[in-house]
Amino acid sequence: MKKTVVGIAFALLALAGCRQVDERDFSVDLPALTEANAAEMEKDVRAALAMYRGVDKASLKFDVAKHCVTMRYDSMQVAHKNIELAIAKAGWVANDVTPESVGAKAKTK
């Protein structure tokens, strides 16, 4: 009985030390991001990522000159691939993920 209690105590201590948050920076190439469609794309990307709790929406920075968006996300809550897929589902190419590859209609402007 004592061995069981000791084992459970060690297990609880081990779990208490487990990582709870793993924040990372991530950049997504958006080849279609231009001055002409920046507002529309920003609106679409923000809406696509709104459902993910792990994405820090306040950290989203769109760079038209570099055709990308950078953000901070918690990899314990969302994978970077899910971010790319969400943007592609909104109709925009995200890194190498195309809207067509996820069954969405591509937006072009």
Could you characterize what this model shows?
The protein has 109 residues and is an alpha+beta fold. Helix 2 packs across helix 3. The model has no long low-confidence stretch (mean pLDDT 89). The longest helix has 15 residues, at 2-16. The chain has a three-stranded antiparallel beta sheet with strand order 1-3-2, with helices on one face. It has helices at residues 2-16, 38-49, 80-89, and strands at 23-29, 55-63, 68-74. It has one domain (21-99): 2-Layer Sandwich (Alpha-Beta Plaits), CATH 3.30.70.100. Strand 2 (55-63) and strand 3 (68-74) form a beta hairpin. The chain is elongated.
Domain module tally: 1
CATH class identity:
Alpha Beta
Distance between the termini: 69 Å
In DSSP terms, counting alpha (H) and pi (I) runs of 4 or more, how many helices?
3
- Estimated helix fraction: 25-40%
Structural class given helices, strands, pairing? alpha+beta
Find the CATH topology: Alpha-Beta Plaits
The outline comes out as: elongated
Residue fraction in strands: 15-25%
CATH-defined architecture: 2-Layer Sandwich
Would you list the SSEs in sequence order as H and E?
HEHEEH
Largest sheet: 3 strands, antiparallel
Strand order of the largest sheet: 1-3-2
